[in-house]
Amino acid sequence: MTNTALITGASRGLGLALARSLAGAGWNLVLTARGAEDLEKVAAELGATAIPGDVAEAAHRERLAAAVPTLDLLVNNASGLGATPLPKIAGYPLEAFRVLLETNVIAPLSLIQATIPAVRAARGAIVNITSDAATGAYEGWGGYGATKAALEQLSNVLAAEEPDVAVWWADPGEMNTRMLADAVGAEEAAGAADPEDVARALHELIDRRPASGRVSLQ
C-alpha cells in the first residue's frame, strides 16, 4: 500500500526538498503552500496533489484534512519569520507576534487536531519543524524562537498522549533558504546547509521511525 504524506510549506526550501525525496520513494503526496503558481509546478513535477492556501486560515486547514482521509505522515513545515529586521523583545510589535503565533503555533496544532484520526488509524507519524531558536537566546530571534518553543512543548505533550503515533520535533539547523536570507542577508545564508541534505536526513528519520522526541537534523 502506498504511503500518503501531507507537507505544508512545500513550494520551496526544506518542504520542497522533502517532497522530492519522498516522491522518489513512491509516496503519495498532498502539498500546500501560499504561492499557488510555484506549488502547482512542484505538484506537476512530482505527480502530487496541490492545495494552495494559507495554513493560518481555518477553512484552508479544513480542505487539507478533507483531502487526506488516510494519512501516514503529517509534516508541519510552513512557518513565518515575523517582524523584520529582527526586533529585540522589548520592542517586538505585539500584533506581528500575534500573527506569528497564528502561523507557527495555532496552525500546526489545528492541522494536527484535524488529521489525528487518520494518523492514528495508520499508526503514522507527525513531524513538526522547529529551530534551535526555540532553546537558544539569540538576539533578535525572540519572537520566532518563542513560537517554536511553544510548538516543541505541544509536540512533547502530544507524544506522551499519542503512544501509537510517532511525533518528532525536528530542528533542521541553519539552511540556505529565503527565510534565513530575509533574517541575516543572502550572503550569510549562502553559507548554511543545503535543504536537500537536511531533507535526506529527515527522510532517513521517517524511514527509521525512532521513538518520539526532539531530533537534530544536522
Automatic annotation (TrEMBL):
Family annotation (PROSITE patterns): ADH_SHORT
Keyword terms: Oxidoreductase
GO molecular function: oxidoreductase activity
InterPro entries listed in its UniProt record: NAD(P)-bd_dom_sf (IPR036291), Sc_DH/Rdtase_CS (IPR020904), SDR_fam (IPR002347)
Entry keyword annotation includes Oxidoreductase: yes
Top enzyme class: oxidoreductase
The keyword Signal is annotated on this UniProt entry: no
EC number(s) recorded for this UniProt protein: 1.-.-.-
Stored PANTHER family: DEHYDROGENASE/REDUCTASE SDR FAMILY MEMBER 7B (PTHR44196), DEHYDROGENASE_REDUCTASE SDR FAMILY MEMBER 7B (PTHR44196:SF1)
Family: Belongs to the short-chain dehydrogenases/reductases (SDR) family.
The protein, known as: SDR family NAD(P)-dependent oxidoreductase
